[in-house]
Prior knowledge:
The chain is mainly α and about 90 residues long. Helix content is about 55%, strand content about 5%. The protein is built from four helices and two strands; from the N terminus they run ββαααα. A two-stranded antiparallel sheet has the order 1-2.
Amino acid sequence: MEIHGDRPLDPAARRRQLDAARGLNGLTAAGSAKADATYTGSDTAAVSRLVDILKNMNPADLQRIDELKARIADGSYRADPEELADLLLGRSR
């Protein structure tokens, strides 16, 4: 850990120093700017599956989700802790 004055170097500044020392100055090997995220083939497949699930959702489910969002936003939704625990544990009431 580097110390500058009486306090350590900011972690973000330290990361920039390390990247510069490694030659990672924000450019890829091709010399273009880095992307914000890197996706692999498995990520793309997972996103594709999720998009398909969303496209095929029952409109009644979407309406229920909208109703719950509205109740949460206006403060009228109250969760039952025991019911939530049962759902998380796979038990039915």
